[in-house]
Design brief:
The chain is an alpha+beta fold. It is built from 11 helices and 13 strands.
């Protein structure tokens, strides 16, 4: 396994940036959950009534009284305080980003990071959407406190796993859930589906975003049209084996993008990732070059778990969603075949 450990200064800066962004997320989400919309007084007849307006809908909270005045004062003062705190944290994040970038801590491609932030803002990240494929390695290397070699991370696509079992719960005032295609165009206007009813969108720079989901247990129950939002142009492609990743434990990680700005990433457990990649590498219909890389990534992540995350065992019951015959093969991934491959080429 090729992973470079972080220096003491890098670790210190990374922890500080993560804690700062974690505080920002708490403030942001509290504003959206507890201080949605606005409050105002409205005179009806001879009395003032307190109204709470959310998403264009106003609801009366009752006539002016000590109780409603306290509600109004608490709402406005609480919201103002959180807005002030949010602005302070945003300023600190912008100030520290160039330093973190200079220290080499920024890893996630900028466009990928913007997509994940949009999904996070809409309440979809970690609830209906998780990151699978090569980009998940950014989360795993952070858990290990190091960096994979760049070749292990190179990719031109983003795989987003859709959990169609869960409904999207928006944390903002918007009533209609935006689809993935709309969110992508918020990030980059050049994003377009490759065809009508496609699962893939691509932008002008060639970055591909794939929306995928597990195949149903019974083929006759194929959903044939799972989407992130009701009006989404992208329809998830059903892919065999993804149910193992969907039902595995999930991890939530704060990372830095290549410009030094933070983001959240939700991914399947690294053990499930490694075993799924091993399974992929042995499929007869898998492209040989992709299969070789699948096996490389499977070994790298399995060895990362064994070396840096010893509390995670491949024998734990929380991996019971994966086939037992696959779980017992974890030991195969802990050997380094580098010498054997070198001999083959000599």
């Amino acid at each position: 396994m090729r992973i470079r450990a972080l220096s003491g200064e890098q670790i210190r800066r990374l922890i500080d940036s993560e804690q700062r962004y974690g505080a920002y997320i708490q403030v942001r989400d509290r504003l959206r959950h507890s201080f949605r919309g606005s409050m105002h007084w409205k005179t009806v007849g001879s009395r003032d009534y307190l109204y709470h307006k959310v998403g264009g809908v106003s609801k009366s909270l009752g006539p002016r009284s000590q109780e409603t005045q306290a509600i109004y004062d608490g709402f406005t003062s609480g919201r103002d305080e959180l807005e002030r705190r949010k602005a302070e944290l945003e300023q600190a994040i912008r100030k520290n980003a160039p330093v973190d970038r200079a220290l080499g801590l920024g890893r996630v491609p900028a466009t990928v990071a913007k997509i994940l932030r949009r999904l996070d803002e809409q309440g979809a990240l970690g609830t209906r959407i998780s990151v699978v494929g090569t980009n998940a390695l950014f989360a795993y290397e952070r858990k290990a406190g190091g960096h994979f070699e760049s070749g292990m991370l190179a990719t031109g696509d983003v795989d987003l796993l859709l959990d169609a079992r869960r409904r999207l719960r928006l944390i903002g005032p918007t009533e209609a859930a935006p689809g993935l295609s709309a969110l992508l165009r918020m990030v980059d206007r050049s994003f377009r589906p490759v065809s009508a009813g496609a699962f893939r969108a691509i932008n002008g720079a060639g970055l591909m975003v794939d929306l995928i989901e597990p195949m149903p247990k019974l083929p006759t129950r194929s959903r044939q049209g799972a989407k992130l939002g009701p009006n989404d142009e992208l329809i998830a492609a059903e892919v065999e084996g993804l149910e193992w990743l969907q039902n595995a434990p999930q991890i939530d990680t704060i990372l830095l993008d290549e410009k030094g700005f933070p983001l959240r990433m939700a991914t399947p457990d690294p053990r499930a990732f490694a075993l799924h990649k091993l399974w992929l590498s042995e499929r007869r219909d898998r492209d040989p070059l992709k299969a070789f890389r699948d096996l490389q990534q499977a070994r790298a992540v399995a060895q990362l778990v064994a070396t840096y995350l010893p509390a995670l065992s491949f024998e734990d019951d929380d991996l019971s969603a994966l086939p037992a015959a696959l779980r017992v093969r974890a030991a195969e991934l802990l050997t380094d075949p580098a010498d054997e491959h070198q001999a083959d080429w000599e």
